[in-house]
Amino acid sequence: MSEPEAAGDNVNNEENNPPESKTENKNEEEQPEPPKEMKAVVLAGFGGLKSVKVMNKPQPAVGEGEILIRVKACGLNFLDVMVRQGVIDSPPKTPFILGFECAGEVEGVGEGVTDVKVGDRVAALTEYKAWAELVSVPAKYVYSLPQGMEFQNAASMLMNYVVAYILVFDIGNIRSGQSVLVHSAGGGVGQAISQLCKTVSDVTLIGTASKHKHESIKDSFAHLLDHGVDYVQEIKKLSPEGVDIVLDCLYGDDANKGYNLLKPLGRYILYGSGNIVTGETKSFFSLAKSWWQVDKINPMKLFDENRSVSGFQLRHLLYQQGAHEYVRGVVNKVFKMWENGHIKPVVDSTWAFEDVPEAMQKLHDRKNVGKIILDPNMEPKPKPKLQTKGSKDKDKEKEKDGKAVGETAAGESTDAEKENKEGDSSAPSSAN
Q1: Mean per-residue pLDDT for 322-347?
Q2: Which of 43, 186, 230, 261 is the Cys-Cys partner for 209 at CB 3.0 to 4.6 Å?
């Protein structure tokens, strides 16, 4: 074959099997890397504990005016239980990352943020998304930690003590010589209210809590009552004229009882609705019952009886009503009280992300004393080994084999002992 023909064959071969073009190589090089992922606690759907999942989610990017936080500790609140059941107003569509408060280190700062730098230690109040390894939060909801405050203390203080401070001082306007009734006295907010009230002289604290908590919190309250009994009559025995302030996180029938316990010029303050949560999932009966049990109060009734009724919800105040500067001022006051040794957060327990369902159940059952903390870096509890019928049968066989071996060993030792005894009897006895 001539050289031109060979050259032509080579051209044809190149056309039929062209080498990878430079454009294709360039496109491969320009393909974006997959987004980095993080561990997060996600609500897959409203309902029971099985709807709470630990999943890998894309790491958030820090936007303008935002702060990216590497989360070290998160707070678990009763609000999170209500979110899981779907009994709060305007919840986001599932799936979404749970959690309303966290503490950690600043990992990134968005454009326009000047008062925080990378590496700073901060806490944040978030509108969801706090239960993750990373969270990006608008700077107006982020607060620098005092020197020496641990992340767990920050997460246990932030929401609970801000709520308690506003209830006690800004709405309740508590003064020396007054009396205060506090429901859920063993919870995180209840313990915070107790500590803050004790910064005012001669305040009588009456708390209701489950009987099993009384021993743990007996030093926090002047009088502790079992919420399951007729606590109204018990309070009337202690103070026939009533109390000055009622701090109610339960709602339902407790709202009527609280209002009727007020002295003249007394103040009833609602800051929660725990009574609507009865089972693991949402109960329309409990919702209707709580609403139906509450008397409708006419302003003229308040006028005639010289009583006040008010409510407080931190989330609405912060995210819907724009009071972030006011809340920042309260956070600063709370942190200053901690620095001065006037308050100390009570931590009930710390849990891994993987164990959040169990932690939620503990909170739902009102078995905690103080705050429940979540730690994204904590190792989960070891899970019990799953046993099947086959594995149980094998275990029984092993037990039988073990017993048989034990019996044989015991029999052998008995024979040896017999031989020794026979040897001893045949040997001459020693002279006395």
Answers
A1: 97
A2: 186
